[in-house]
Amino acid sequence: MAVSEVMFWRQFVSLPVMLGWLAWRGELSRLRTERIFIHARRSALGMSGLTFNFLALTMLPLAEWTALTFTAPLFTVIISGLILRHHVGPWRWTAVLFGFAGVLVIAQPGHSHMPMLGAIAGLLAGLFGAIVTIQVKDLSRTEESLTVVFYFAVFGSLFTAVFLPFTATSHTLWQWGLIVAMGLVGMVGQIFLTAALRFGAMASVVVMDYSQLIWASLFGWLLTSQLPLSTTWLGAPLIVAAGVVITWREERARRIMARTGVLEIQ
Questions:
Q1: So what's the pLDDT on residue 139?
Q2: Mind spelling out the 3-state secondary structure of the chain?
Q3: Which residues contact 85 (CB under 8 A, 6 or more apart)?
Q4: CA–CA separation, 196 and 60 (whole Å)
Q5: 141, exposed or middle or buried, with CB in 10 Å at 0-12, 13-18, 19+?
Q6: What's the rounded Cα separation, in Å, for the pair 145 and 166?
Q7: Is the C-alpha dihedral spanning 99, 101, 106, 107 positive or negative?
């Protein structure tokens, strides 16, 4: 199945479920929004990130793919410092350097045990993940989680439907079952993640997100009998540690600002 078709069904399957549930409860008004263009922009960025995610997943083992997507906090710091012109101190810049050192350990450029295109796609997935996290955090100020996920599915379906005439294929009953399951699980995951970003402290959300590496290693072993390579055991902790340090410093700064009114992030 082509990546574009996977992405279409990943989004489209969730639409009738969300609409049906809201209609049954008489709560379709919850989908009302005044930020439709912001939703469209978030969806375009999110679908770009999903594209790189799926491409990396087709080329890399699960654990390596997951580790590379953990670079999102590193890119968040770079975006904050170089594009948004926020102050970024030595703690966070040092964490970024250590994180990308972990990427080099995993990818082993020049002695690659993995496709370099896969590694690049994984890094781009991390980059777009950082951008989308910023977008979702902004949308969550005014929109509830279900609204954000619904419009992501609407625009994501529209963006990818363009490619269906060229990529769509027939599927068996078993494959349709997997497609529906993918859409439903993706929808539930998006709702929980959006709710976490809305109600939870970013530090808690990011740290819990790193548990993906455990699950990816477990499922990689159960489904394909693959265990993470030795370079992944060395590089992944550097990426995770960098993300934790970055999140800890930002959470510390928020607490100081809440207490004193002074923003100080090092």
A1: 87
A2: CCHHHHHHHHHHCHHHHHHHHHHHCCCHHHHCCCCHHHHHHHHHHHHHHHHHHHHHHHHCCHHHHHHHHCCHHHHHHHHHHHHCCCCCCHHHHHHHHHHHHHHHHHHCCCCCCCCHHHHHHHHHHHHHHHHHHHHHHHHCCCCCHHHHHHHHHHHHHHHHHCCHHHHCCCCCHHHHHHHHHHHHHHHHHHHHHHHHHHHCCHHHHHHHHCCHHHHHHHHHHHHHCCCCCHHHHHHHHHHHHHHHHHHHHHHHHHHHHHHHCCCCCC
A3: none
A4: 28
A5: exposed
A6: 33
A7: positive
CB atoms within 10 A of CB 74: 26
| Res. 140 pLDDT band, cuts 50 70 90 | confident
Cα(148)–Cα(114) distance, integer angstroms? 35
Q: Report the distance separating Cα 189 and Cα 183, nearest Å.
A: 10
Alpha-carbon gap, residue 241 to 95, rounded angstroms:
8
Instruction: State the Cα–Cα distance between residues 211 and 217, nearest whole angstrom.
Output: 10
The residue behind tokens 């450029």 is 109
The answer to whether residue 151 scores a pLDDT higher than 90 is yes
Q: Which amino acid is at 19?
A: L
In which residue are the tokens 């599915």 written?
A: 153
The pLDDT score that the predictor gives to residue 207 is 56
Q: Which residue has the higher pLDDT, 172 or 254?
A: 172
Geometric angle at alpha carbon 123, from 117 and 124, rounded to 5°: 90
pLDDT surpassing 80 at residue 143: yes
| pLDDT per residue as tens digits for the range 46-58 | 999 988 988 888 8
